[in-house]
Structure formats: C-alpha cells, structure tokens
Design brief:
By secondary structure, this protein is an alpha/beta fold. It is built from 14 helices and 11 strands. The protein is elongated.
C-alpha cells in the first residue's frame, strides 16, 4: 500500500513549497503524522515544490515526529514534475537544506520533468564535489499531461445535421427524450433557415406515416429553435461542407453520421470527415452502410457499439437501435469511455490511411469514360 504522510499542524502553501493541499495520487491513501504507521507500507512524506531558486530551507517545517519516522522507513518525496529548466541552483539549495536539517543519509527522491535528470544530477555532484544525497526520478510529465488533455472530452458525440430531414429530426428528438442531447455537439436547422426541402411539419407528417410520431416529438417541434454551431444559418452551402472545425472532433469521442437518406447507401463527406479526424462513428442512414464500408477496407467499431443496427431493414427501428447505442455510451463512466476509445486507436489510424490511399487513387473521370468505351 502506498501511503502519503502529512504534518497535521502545518498549513503552508507559499511560492516555494507546499506542506499541505498537495497532489494526491489515485493509487495512494493519505495519513497525518501521528496516525498508525505501518513500516511494511510504501510510506512517503511529500513536499511539493514550487521553486527553490532562492535560499529556501525546504525541510524547515518538517516536524520532529516526521523526521523520527525516517528511521522506520519513511521516505521523502520532493515532487515537481511540471518544469524542465536547469537544476543547478535547485540542487544546491536542496543540498544545503538537507545538510542543515541533518537529513544526509535519508531516503530522498526528487521527481522532476527533465528527461536527462540522472545525467545532470551526476554532473552536479562532480562539479560541486558533493556526495550523493538523493535519488533523481525523471518523469515525462508533459507527454502524459498533454495526452490526458487531448483525451479529455467536453462532450460525448458530434452530430451534424445541416438540413432538416425526417430521420434527422427523429434522431435528435429521441436523444432529447433520453436526456442525452446536451451530451453532444449537435446541429439541426429548419427550412426557414436553410434551403432545405421539407419543413418541420412535413417532417412530422412523414414520421407519423411510419408510426414514429409521439407527444415528445410534437413538443420538441413546438419548442424547436435552430441548433447552429460554427456556420451561420444563412451561410449553409456546398462551398462550406468540406470545412472542418477540428475542435468539434477534438472535444468529442465519436461521430453520429446523419446521411442524406435512410433508403439508399451513399457515402458523403460526413463519414470521410470522421475517418480523417480519427473518430469512430455510428450511422443514422441506410441499412448495410457499415457493411459497405467494410467492403472498402475500413474498420468499424463493434468494441464501442452494438452494430447489429446495420442489419435492421425497418428505418425507424434502425434509428432507435442507433439512439440506444448513443445513450449507452453517454451513460458510461468517463474512464470507461477513454479506455474503450483507446482500444480502437489502431483502427482509427488504419482507417485514415486507407481513406487517404483510396482518395488519392481515384481515377480521372475521362479515364473512366474511356474505359467504358
């Protein structure tokens, strides 16, 4: 067991170091000096550094009781992984404080973000004719921190619906019914805002014909407001469909692809955008779309979703199955979402390469015509 020890009567957080309110690690428990001490545990007294540029006595506030535990296996951990500048002044001040507090020979670790920490520490000892007084631990904090940041998502899914269509209205209203609409970055406009082909009421009428109407749908339409993201409603056109807002992809785990129709297989830029931007996806569209993509060499994502919806021929039932998968993902713990998405990263990179290769190999139209003659 890893145990982090703190002095109960010390409340210090200044520009140089911290004796309380310090970093707490997920795999450790915390205790205060005076609690039951088990020498068989991995016991660490942490001092979280801010800087030691000045003549700072780092160990001046460490209690006598804490120092007495050093003989029983308590170790000192100087924790400061978030910088990568030179250490010469730091190491000298740490060494001075070690000597001043009679800590030479104690087990002291210095955690720092310098990849060359061990080499630089040896150089310091040689240049200053100083005996070894701590164990340097180099951690690549910035690599881990950045990866955690880019994997941290503000929303679960991305769902573009540039123009109003019955299946799009139905899917969005169902996500609202299941209270996961706010989990996504979602757009949905209406005829009065775009050059769409159907109105809200026409969509409702079409859905009613397929027994997909509901009181919730009626209320959703009654209170409908255009859901617009980065492109103003009056700027929707073919000229902007290939523009990409990378923040939308970076801040979500997966895409909900709303294709133009639910009756005929047709791959548009929405799927290619998801593939190029390393997004797994589910498809609100025709049956057998995933089958078509697999035939073209792409992976799909059965690790994340039950993809049996692809075989459902009834359009409403198929959308219902997709919605269920979105809701299920949204209700997962955040750590589970990250882990599941990490498992399929190799598929995402492969799909991107496959897409680029296929796109570059598209023949000239006149070559196709010539081959047909």
């Amino acid at each position: 067991m890893i145990t982090l020890w703190y002095d109960a009567d010390i409340n210090c957080q200044c520009e140089d170091f911290v004796y309380n309110n310090r970093t707490v690690f997920d795999n450790a428990i915390t205790k205060q000096i005076g609690d039951n001490f088990n020498p068989n545990d991995a016991n660490y007294y942490i001092i979280e550094l801010h800087n030691v540029y000045k003549d700072v006595d780092l160990f001046s506030l460490m209690s006598t009781a804490a120092k007495d535990l050093l003989d029983q296996g308590l170790k000192i951990l100087l924790y400061y992984p978030q910088e990568g500048h030179t250490l010469d002044g730091w190491l000298y001040n740490i060494y001075t404080s070690v000597c001043k507090n009679n800590l030479l020979g104690s087990k002291i670790f210095l955690v720092f973000g310098d990849n060359d920490l061990k080499t630089n520490y040896k150089t310091f000892l040689q240049e200053n004719n100083v005996n070894d007084f701590l164990t340097p631990i180099s951690v690549d904090y910035f690599a881990k921190y950045y990866l955690e940041k880019v994997q941290s998502k503000n929303k679960d899914y991305l769902f573009y619906n540039g123009k109003l269509r019955p299946h799009r209205l139905y899917a969005v209203s169902e996500l609202d019914r299941y209270n996961v609409l706010n989990n996504g970055i979602v757009s949905l406009t209406a005829t009065e805002y775009t050059n769409g082909v159907v109105s809200l009421q026409e969509c409702v009428n079409e859905l009613n014909k397929h027994n997909a109407g509901s009181l919730h749908l009626d209320n959703f339409v009654k209170n409908f407001k255009p859901m617009i993201l980065d492109i103003p409603a009056d700027k929707f056109s073919l000229d902007v469909i290939n523009e990409t807002n990378f923040n939308h992809y970076g801040n979500t785990y997966f895409s909900v692809i709303s294709e133009t129709t639910v009756s005929r297989r047709f791959i548009t830029e929405k799927i290619y955008k998801a593939i190029y931007n390393l997004h797994p996806f589910v498809i609100v569209g025709p049956a057998k779309m995933l089958e078509l993509l697999r035939q073209q060499g792409y992976y799909t994502f059965e690790e994340l979703f039950d993809e049996s919806y692809d075989n459902e021929l009834d359009h409403v039932k198929r959308i219902d199955l997709v919605v269920q998968q979105i809701v299920k993902f949204c209700n997962m713990p955040a750590s589970h979402k990250r882990d599941k998405c990490n498992e399929i990263m190799h598929k995402l990179y492969y799909n991107k390469e496959n897409y680029i290769k296929r796109a570059k190999s598209q023949p000239n139209i006149f070559e196709v015509i010539s081959n047909e003659n």
